[in-house]
Design brief:
By secondary structure, the protein is α/β, with parallel strands linked by helices. The chain is about 30% helix and about 25% strand. It has five helices and ten strands, in the order E-E-E-H-E-E-H-E-H-E-H-E-E-E-H. A seven-stranded mixed β-sheet has the order 5-4-3-6-7-9-8, with helices on both faces. A three-stranded mixed β-sheet has the order 1-2-10. Helix 2 packs across helix 3. It is globular and about 65 Å long.
Length: about 180
C-alpha cells in the first residue's frame, strides 16, 4: 500500500507494504549495459520482454539480455543471454542495481513489489500496462507515459522521493504521534 501523508508524516511520500521489497540493498552503482527480467513463468511474457530488448539493442549494440529465474525453462533465441538461476534476494537486487534497463512484461501480477524493486533499482524500466502497475505509477505520482505499445517507460531519476518504511516503523511513528497529544 502506498500512502500520501498530509499530517502524519508531514512532507513525505511513503511506501508501506506487508511484504516489503528489498530496498535495504538498493544503492548507487554504475549501471552496466544489461537489460534484466525477473521470472520465466508463462505470465511473465518473456517473448514480449525479448522484443523490447531487441528494439533497445538497435540503438545500444552493447546491451546484454539477463534473465533471473527460479525455474528451469526453455527459451529459443539467437540473442546472447545471461541466465541466473536460484539466486538469493541480495544477489537479485545487486543485479537489478547494475542493470541499465528493467523489463516487466507480465500479463498479470498479484502485487507490484517486483516492478517496484525494478524501477527503483535500474536506471530505466519498461513495465506492462496491467492493473497493479498502473496502480503503482498512479500512487507514486509518476506520469503515465507509454512507449512500445502497451508498456510504461520509467526513468529512475524522475521518480518522486519516497521514504520507505515497514510496519514496525509505521506503528512506532503512529504511537509517537499519539503520545504527542
Amino acid at each position: 500500500m502506498i500512502e500520501k501523508s498530509n499530517n502524519f508524516l508531514k512532507d513525505y511520500n511513503y511506501i508501506l507494504s506487508a511484504n516489503p521489497p528489498d530496498f535495504e540493498f538498493v544503492n548507487s552503482i554504475k549501471y552496466k549495459n544489461i537489460v534484466t527480467i525477473v521470472g520465466t513463468q508463462s505470465y511473465k511474457n518473456v517473448n514480449q520482454a525479448m522484443s523490447i530488448y531487441k528494439l533497445l539493442k538497435l540503438k545500444e549494440l552493447e546491451l546484454k539480455f539477463c534473465i533471473i529465474s527460479e525455474h528451469n525453462f526453455k527459451f529459443r533465441s539467437d540473442e546472447e543471454m545471461i541466465i541466473f538461476k536460484n539466486l538469493n534476494r541480495k544477489k537479485v537486487i545487486e543485479i537489478l542495481n547494475k542493470s541499465k534497463y528493467y523489463i516487466n512484461a507480465s500479463i498479470y501480477e498479484n502485487s507490484f513489489n517486483n516492478a517496484l524493486e525494478g524501477i527503483f533499482s535500474s536506471q530505466y524500466s519498461y513495465i506492462s500496462d496491467i492493473e497493479v502497475h498502473r496502480e503503482l505509477l498512479e500512487k507514486i505520482k509518476y506520469p503515465l507515459k507509454k512507449k512500445y505499445s502497451n508498456f510504461f517507460f520509467i526513468e529512475k531519476n524522475k521518480i518522486p522521493s519516497f521514504k520507505f518504511i515497514n510496519w514496525n516503523q509505521d506503528c512506532k511513528l503512529l504511537i509517537n504521534k499519539i503520545n504527542e497529544f
